[in-house]
Amino acid sequence: MSNTLEVGGVEVPGRVWIAPMTGVSDLPFRETATALGAPYVATEMVASAELARGRPDVVRRAAVGDGLPLTVIQLVGRDIAFMAQGARMAQEAGAEIIDLNFGCPAKEVTKGVACGSALMREPDLAEALVDAAVKAVDVPVTVKMRLGWDVDCLNAPDIARRAEAAGAKAITVHGRTRNQFYKGVADWTAVAAVKRAVSVPVLVNGDIVDGDSARMALEQSGADGVMIGRGVYGRPWIAGVIEAALEGRGFAEPEAEERLAIALTHFRRSLTFYGENLGLKMFRKHLASYIEAAPWPETAEARRAARATLCRLEDPAAVEVALRDLWLAGGRLAA
To answer: pTM (2 decimals)?
Structure first.
């Protein structure tokens, strides 16, 4: 299998992609993951209507930055006109691929405004949204979805066919329904029905955390690539690890000094992008993930205690010193 995927004329140099994640895939994270070898890292979910209205915090989520080899902006919404306008603004901002969110299960997204995975219950509207975005821009439009709303509405193959007919150039499927949220296990075999339904590239998503799970997901789904979500928390290098495993190459998880350098580079990017005060607050979720994902300290209880302590610090310099002490003086190198 080729290690590249073509999406509507855009060549993505890898088949291990990182999913759009609210509160995670901001510009500092995308810069960090890309520098560590991720070929595709989408923005946070961006509300098309609020992007069209120019709401500052939403515009910031779509920030492109300099030097990223590929920019993917994900839009969410249910208003056709705003979706078209948001897509145009995303392209003007520098998006080379625009992804539409039909998969977010969060209640604040699916209720009230009824978008994200709520669109799995409205296939006509879902198709119209894809059509509007495709006609509004010159760059490829893709879709990320779930298997369906619930076990009585497993309509991902139908939505995928409609999306392709409307011009979508790739489909990603999370192997759960909306009502499952993240409970149970992802059903990779069910994604195979979507792969059979369309001719565009299909990516399988859900519970992919390492080379073995990626290999199994590809085998069971027949998909062309994988998309990693929660498995990237605290491990922005994981796309490279998994890509290497799929190619039969060795690629070890970073040791303490390298891991520290990655985390601190990410932290400093956050301070630069948001400013010192907000940058520290925005990084705390990542800081907690870095601590939880590391093998030092050795016990989960000790890592939880360290996370609680470090995430209360108010001074960026103190965060750097404490993380260095945790992983070097009191962690791996002191063992």
So the answer is: 0.95
